[in-house]
Design goal:
This protein is α+β, with helices and mostly antiparallel strands and 708 residues long. The chain is built from 21 helices and 28 strands. The N terminus and C terminus are likely disordered.
């Protein structure tokens, strides 16, 4: 009868018969509405996308060409451009158009390409005349995740990244964590961690992980391993866990020597830290403090393979609990957490902090350095060491407020971070001694000579007299600036660095070993050829902060605990000798050999120049702050004199090769006697070529004192 029972609709307990013609009309209407719904609703980002996605989103260029139905004998329009913008053409021209205009500027996401679309999908604002011109036809991209249309390609990439950062890869309206299939497993130092695809974007991800900080993590691990050798067990805190990679390395390698606590204030980070602990077969002791209740979840008895995971603010956990080792690695500056870190840290404990706000520390944003660290700095040739001393000065003031002093064990400033490791000494006396080492620095802006201001509160009539240079007398106006307050003490502890090097060799930390060797040479202010990786027998008793630290070769009789003497009278003399050696610490700051080069002269090789300075009677070493830097106790004038003496003219011509001898009024050994005697023949040759070299020296020396 032309009527079929296609669907039973329960309405008032009656079966309603729908004609077949009406059913077909409804199905056609539903098929027409599906594409509209797909544009307004979310596109499922799975292995099989729905059929009704926008035509500008394709996997391959061939799929885009299929939409155009290319045929050699017929003209076809572009499927992504209106007729007014691109007229129908033959297949070869249309192929080039699709490839160059749409496909090459597409945005890729999980195997799909979001091509640029010129259709009238996006409303265009009319001009003053009221009509929409063809030049303003809206070119845009269609988001594969939501219904947004973005004009610029860079904005589209940022839009997709924001979706990924929020975990919105499946649903537009429900924010969910990324599925486990999207995690990446990163392995470092035999430790596996799961990270999100955007793990390298700070402040936009819950699992920030920077592979470039591997060296930083190895240095911190070596410092903790040295502390673990002094006393066991020690409680250590990673205040900003993120993925938990650092705390996992501590627990996995040091085992029963440490009790690791990993903290983070982000709930997703805490969940990921727990998953990474299980990934590395570590048991987790959760201690998450909520607003109303405290919940402790234990996955077994607490033993050497148990890591405690806490969710609270870093300042709160450091106020509530005491630790032997604390590491601070926030995003940016760490000055906001210094007071809490020194409040409850145990005596002879270690506090390490990583500062990544290098724009302010390296004097690119001087106002920020003044705001965060209360320090006035300018860009100098030794700006990296200036950054390290700025951070240590802030650490010293924070420790002194808690009646604690510090001894700097390690200070490293590299491209991406500034790492400072200090040992904490309780008591007002160590606090006063440390606070006295925070001074101002007088820096000559003309020749870059520098000297720390003398101790005392008396106002000097002419502070320029403290500078070794005479730029203020020969140049008009003010030539020097006052920088600081800065840390004026030593940046390294040689005994601690040697033990760190032994730990790095023991655990196979290849990246940290070359840097530690350089740091040991820099701390002793010696060249690399005088250094041996094996600790000598007389270093089995290391003194740090006036405290003997027991090492594997040290007997129990020689072990002292913070001022309590347990050995015989002989050790007192040994302590005095070691204090005398310790007082001869490495000279502050360094000179860049390229910055003080003479125009028209070829400099000697760096290693040869170090030998020349050493032969002149000065202490000299290379520095990790600058690959072309020279750390020496020689004044800048003597530094330039030695550099000029052993430099050769760029255009030698008929001149004999060899060192350039200076006029009689400039001698290399005025303050320190030279190690080698000057031969008579060289003196005669110097008299012959004295006039030409002296003229060159007088022209270039004063005008290029501050040349790059």
């Amino acid at each position: 009868d032309g009527v079929v029972v296609s669907e039973k609709v329960k309405s008032n307990n009656l079966d309603v018969k729908i004609p077949e013609s009406e059913l077909e009309a409804e199905e056609k209407g539903a098929e027409e509405e599906r594409p509209r719904e797909s544009e307004s609703n979310i596109l499922d980002v799975s292995s099989d996308y729905p059929r009704d996605k926008h035509i500008s989103i394709q996997r391959h260029l061939a799929d885009l060409e299929k939409l155009a139905d290319l045929r050699e004998d017929e003209k076809k329009p572009c499927p992504l451009c209106p007729e007014e913008k691109f007229k129908a053409c033959y297949s070869h021209k249309l192929h080039r158009h699709l490839q160059n205009l749409h496909w090459k500027v597409s945005v890729e996401f999980e195997g799909y390409r979001m091509c640029i679309c010129h259709l009238s999908c996006r409303p265009v604002k009319p001009n003053l005349a009221g009509d929409q011109t063809l030049a303003k036809m809206g070119a845009h991209y269609h988001c594969i995740i939501c219904s947004a249309t973005i004009i610029r390609r860079t904005d589209m990439i940022g839009h997709i990244n924001r979706h990924v950062n929020k975990g919105e890869t499946e649903s537009r309206f429900i924010t969910v964590r990324a599925p486990k299939s999207s995690y990446e497993v990163v392995k470092e130092s035999a430790t596996d961690v799961q990270v999100l695809p955007n793990h390298s974007t700070p402040q936009k991800t819950d699992s920030y992980f920077n592979p470039k900080m591997k060296l930083n993590r190895q240095l911190i691990f070596c410092a903790l391993a040295v502390l673990a050798g002094e006393r066991k067990p020690i409680e250590c805190l990673d205040a900003f866990g993120a993925t938990g990679i650092m705390g996992l390395q501590w627990a996995k390698h040091l085992r029963s020597s440490v009790k690791v606590t990993i903290n983070d204030c982000n709930e997703n980070s805490v969940t990921m830290i727990k998953e990474n602990c299980h990934l590395n077969k570590m048991k987790v002791k959760l201690n998450i403090k909520e607003e109303d209740n405290d919940e402790t979840v234990g996955d077994g008895e607490e033993n050497s393979d148990t890591i405690e995971v806490t969710k609270m603010d870093a300042n709160v956990i450091m106020h509530l609990r005491s630790f032997d080792f604390i590491h601070l690695d926030p995003f940016g500056t760490s000055v906001n957490y210094l007071d809490s870190a020194f409040r409850n840290v145990r005596n002879l404990g270690i506090v390490s902090l990583t500062s990544t706000d290098i724009s302010s520390l390296y004097a690119k944003a001087q106002h920020v350095a003044l705001r965060h660290y209360g320090c006035n700095i300018v860009r100098t040739e030794y700006y990296k060491e200036l950054a390290a001393r700025t951070v240590i000065a802030a650490v010293t003031r924070a420790a002194a407020r808690c009646n604690k002093g510090i001894e700097v064990l390690l200070a490293v400033a590299l491209e991406h971070f500034v790492l400072v490791v200090v040992r904490v000494l309780r008591g007002p006396t160590p606090a006063d001694d440390s606070a006295k080492k925070v001074r101002y620095l007088i820096h000559c802006q003309w020749c870059e000579e520098r000297v720390f201001q003398k101790e005392g509160n008396m106002v000097e009539e002419n502070p320029y007299q403290q500078l070794p240079c005479d730029c203020h007398g020969s140049m008009p106006g003010k030539t020097a600036v006052l920088l600081g307050p800065l840390w004026s003490g030593a940046l390294f502890n040689t005994g601690f660095l040697r033990r760190m090097l032994l730990e790095a060799v023991q655990y196979g930390l290849d990246e940290a070993q070359p840097l530690l060797k350089t740091l040991v040479c820099e701390a002793e202010c010696t060249t690399l050829k005088h250094f041996s990786t094996h600790s000598p027998g007389d270093e089995n008793k290391q003194e740090e902060c006036g405290v003997y630290i027991k090492t594997p070769n040290t007997s129990a009789e020689s072990y002292l605990v913070h001022g309590k003497r347990k050995s015989e009278e002989m050790l007192r003399g040994t302590a005095k000798r070691q204090r005398a050696e310790h007082s001869a610490e490495h000279p502050p700051f360094y000179y860049n050999i390229h910055r003080h080069s003479i125009k028209g002269m070829n400099m000697p090789k760096l290693n040869k120049f170090l030998n020349y300075l050493s032969e002149a009677g000065y202490r000299v070493s290379r520095t990790h702050f600058d690959p072309m830097g020279v750390r020496t106790n020689a004044p800048l004038a003597q530094f330039k004199t030695v550099l000029m003496k052993y430099s050769t003219p760029t255009y030698v011509g008929a001149q004999a090769e060899g060192p350039v001898h200076l006029p009689g009024e400039i001698q290399v050994g005025e303050e320190v006697p030279a190690a080698a005697e000057i031969k008579v023949e060289e003196a005669e040759l110097a008299e012959d070529g004295e006039s030409g070299v002296a003229a060159m020296f007088t022209q270039s020396y004063p005008t290029h004192c501050a040349a790059n």
